[in-house]
Amino acid sequence: MASEAWTERKTTAVLVLADGTVIEGYGVGAEGAVEGEVCFNTALTGYQEILTDPSYTKQIVTFTFPHVGNVGANDDDHEDLTPANACGAVGAIFRADVTSPSNYRSASHLDAWLKARGVIGLTGIDTRALTAWIRDNGMPNAVIAHSATGEFDLDALKARAKAWPGLVGLDLARDVAVGQSAVWKQTPWIWDAGYADMAEPKYKIVAVDYGTKRNILRLMSGLGAEVIVMPPTSSAEEILAHEPDGVFLSNGPGDPAATGEYAVPMIRELLAAEVPVFGICLGHQILALALGGTTEKMHQGHHGANHPVKDFTTGKVEIVSMNHGFAVAADSLPQGVEETHRSLFDGTNCGLRLSGKPVFSVQHHPEASPGPQDSHYLFQRFFDLIAESRAKKAA
Description:
By secondary structure, this protein is an alpha/beta fold. It is built from 10 helices and 17 strands. The mean pLDDT is 96. 24% of the residues lie in helices and 28% in strands. The strands form 2 sheets. A 10-stranded mixed beta sheet has the order 8-10-9-11-12-17-16-15-13-14, with helices on both faces.
């Protein structure tokens, strides 16, 4: 019996770290090369929502779950407001090859979907080893590259990775947010029915878009809010001209201190006007800056759908979704600003409220998508504060 010759699979994608490390694998999705910060996400599901979250802009996501892509992709599960702009992760790293989809909601293969969005993918590497490297050394700057020919100028890619300055000091909100105001009325997805539009608004909310996710807006609409989405550079005067019942500060990418250059003065004016305010993720960080706190770059960040957080206002521990590489320094919060939530992984701040005022924020993502729904109550908390504020004004 003749033995078959051993055929070695050709490398068609590489990840080149800023320190010169080269990790070889096989390409999927778009071809080309792009810089980004490499992080890891520990969620077991929801890869499409993860990759389309604008907070991942300029980042390369390593999925710790080995099998990604077997439910395909569809038009309902993206989270960026403008899919044509393809805001979100620039690269994706998988352990196993992407398999053919097997799900009744699938409309396309993940490979085709990545190509359409211009996302470069890398498969066939030890994602556990890369995750351990990030835990030891922090999130590295890198270049991810894919070429069907397998030809790479590694010296050029190493120089490119080393030269990229990273996310510190980088304002990305203006790159991913809406350019003009728009009204949002879509409510949450219902199994076998899809989405619907909210019919009878009870509240008017202005959402300042720093890179918001769709499911955040859907949950507010589902509670009866007409949501006016406004650009991140909107002034307090422009926001208050809508006479909102409350203002929401959204999630988003980049360094909060950089975005805060123009966002903090606006938020301070909103606080002076005593309008109810709720912030999530980047919105939480910028609110902390407006209240006199500081933010700092994290070693490995929080990215996943299984993070334990304690809510000191209820005494309960919740499992939540996280996606952030910067954090509020808890010891920087001034008197009158109370820490309400804390990560049970590393003790970092995950929430605050302004004493005696209808103002609060959280670091995690209560809308999930993907992830657990333990923190959905926070949206109701926002509307309860609005109702209390209305009652006080009426009195």
